[in-house]
Write a structure and sequence with these properties.
Length: 475
Amino acid sequence: MKIRYLILFFLFVAWGISLAADSTRITALAPPINAQDVKRISPVVLRFSNPLNLWEIGPAGIRIMGSQSGQHTEQFSYDRATHTVTFRSSRAFFPGERVTVIVTHKIIPADGTPFLDDFGWQFQIETRPSLGNFESMDPRKVGRWPQAVVAFDAEADGDLDLAIANQGSHSVTVFINHGDYQFTKMEYRAAGEPSSILATDIELDGDLDLLIPRAQTNEITVFLNDGTGQFGQEVGSPCGTQPIAVDAVDLDNDGFLEVIVANFEDDNISLFLNTGDGNLLDPLTFTTGNSVSSVVTGDWNVDGRFDVAVANRYTNTVSLFMNEGNAKLADKIDVELGGYPTALHSADLNKDGFLDLIAADAGRDSIAVLINRGDGSFYPELDYPSGNWPTAIKTGDVDGDADMDLVVANYVEGSVKILLNFNGRYFREWKTIKTPDAPRDVELADLDNDGDLELIVVCESDGLLMIYKNESIGE
């Protein structure tokens, strides 16, 4: 009997090895993983080891999503000889936006072999070189105590719009961009102290919706876009206590975006799986450090699965939850920081193809940079001066030299500082922009379609939106 089971076992192992050898895999892709200078109209190219079923190559099989432009559902071409799929978008990506490509497990090879290589990766769109001369535009009133701002194309008209979460007035302010810095202002009621805001296509209907954590009512709310830039229907889901930050990414490579919420009071994150129609399942909970203050997603070990990272304000750590596949997050791995982080961001700072982590450290008035070793572990932090009490940190190619620079908002000092990236080896302060009191959040976006990145700041004390126009070289 034992010999029989041994024979069956070895036959099963041999069959598995043969199956893996014959399975369809991705053999090449473009643009490269975490590339930073991708053209606005660059195609997305994937080469497979075996022929594919053409009916499954479209949006259900391969999804392309811009962080500001939303989903790109374009026509594709297929080269049967090389098993190569090429997507060419009819509309350009926005300068500086991050693009995510998901190759889902719905891809079906033509010969019936299994597809084991569902995979996701990201790249960054290039920006135009600039002089760094930032002109302050007229201040615009928003609600009371604005906490966060996001740039996105609400109407899919090629102009980037803005949305602001106002905690004190329980509202969301949306500015629809008509070009030449002319905006139409709209106000939406958002009871329950909105604490952050994210634009993403949660329904995958081609329109960017708004995700808003509500710190008072302890829920995450989706404001659905009706396709014209109007936000009417609200869909709320309970989460933890005092949700403070949100991100969304496809964690199980099924083409639908999961939602991750950081719950400040509960010291945990809530993970909502997406059913595919915008409805979120009951959340899974993962314990973080004390007073989790920020959440970001990215593939830190480059295995094709997106992971989750959070900043823990009062344990002075960053916690990483590595994705083991099918949205199963491993136990957290803590990375020690010298002070307490108030915000977290990710980008490939040294252009080695691996995402690094950047934290705003309010305890030491500094920016903590964690360089990725390439396997999801990090070298000891590098610290750079920020200003007094940094509350927000973003990255972007502000000067247009294909390196990701650092932009930090300093709450007590009332300033935004830009640190230029010198080939990923070090950062140096380039510009300090004086703002109204209490800048809470900062965003980077090309608001005037000239190819460079403007600075957008929300200031808490006076309830102001500040736009600083960037001057391109040659303007």
